Amino acid sequence: xxxTLYEILGIPADASASDIAAAYAKLAANGDWSDPNTPSxxxxxxxxxxxxxxxxxYDASLAGRSAPAARESAIDPDPGxxxxxxxxxxxxxxxxxxxxWATSRREAPTPRPATPQMVQESPAAPEKTVVxxxxxxxxxxxxxxxxVTPQVAAPSVTxxxxxxxxxxxxxxxxxxxxRVNVMDATDRVVATGSGVVVDAGALVTxxxxxxxxxxxxxxxxxxxxxxxxxxxxxxxxxxRLTVAGMRAPALTLAGVDTLRTGQRVYAIGxxxxxELTISEGIVSALRKxxxxxxxxxxxxxxxxxxxxxxxxxxxxxxxxxxxxxxxGQNLNFAxxxxxxxxxxxxxxxxxRVAQAVAAQISGGTSPMALILGRWLCRDWLSGRTAKFxxxxxxxxxxxxxNQSGTLAYAxxxxxxxxxxxxxxxxxxxxxxxxxxxxxxxRDKSIACERx
Length: 451
Description:
Lipocalin; Thrombin, subunit H; alpha+beta; Helix Hairpins; six-stranded antiparallel beta barrel; eight-stranded antiparallel β-barrel; 3 domains
């Protein structure tokens, strides 16, 4: 027997909108995905039951479907039932029908044809007064015409923004999502990220992207334009860039208070430098940190996605993609778009938000939570010093002998791997606390202190 949408989500027929959203979020994150049809069934159930009008129509179809079953269950399965009682049943039904017909003919008034005036007479419509700017005198033509009473509209309710398909959201948002190129003094690209247009000639990206090089450029479509940092708020990990000559339209922003756990969202950015990549997910959770609320989402991101946009079903920018937690399954995070209006020039650890989230998920003791941030390191054997800045996007900036470069890094157990296109370094993490780190490599022993 075909399951109902309520059975697909595992909720009762009188479930509230929040119950529906919670059930969808739980099944989307932890449900049985062995059946390839499961994602579309869950999405259909959530969309239909979350829309009051579509839900009423669906409930009516369920009632119509269950009525024949109820009539069938009332029939006596005994084949002799009709023979023994059929005549009595037919006679009783005929007598009841005649009685109803005679009563209705005696009591019911003669029905009148429906006219516009019946809008006022109907008990379902409360009496209303239509206010005009001035009375209009009657004319002979108007007197001859039947009176028409304007139908009174229901009390106005501010409608929610129209929901759109992924194609529509992408088509509207893509012209305002850029790839950010970070270069050294010789114009060599050392890192890439994403950015979103928030004002005329202004773009916002992650500070842990924008501050790792000496120069910046922005690629919008086929156009590449130079950019400079206007405001760097390292506490919020948001940087505002000024882009001269940029003509892209500013995106529409929406606050984090418009989001609900379980609702669908889209991430658009340039993961691994592949600009204008869109991915779909849901809001997994809304997590409190010192500076407000950040968004946890299943919309996939990769290095290079940082600074990209997170959009709701109406195409509004609700978040700035910032990092993924490397010690969990599909744990991606975005900073709320609300923070764009709170930006000011402040220095701080670009890992502050990531550290707060890591502390919530792992108690703050995982290597990822502890290694993020800036370190001053010294090689015991050579005595030379270097600076490491571990970002939440899987990249580490290395400054050594007045030269800098960016490597990708990964941690597996006690192994720390740092690589770029030309070289790789493997270390064993001997000690790692919030203030101290000791690394041993094949020909290096490095002691680091938090900068």
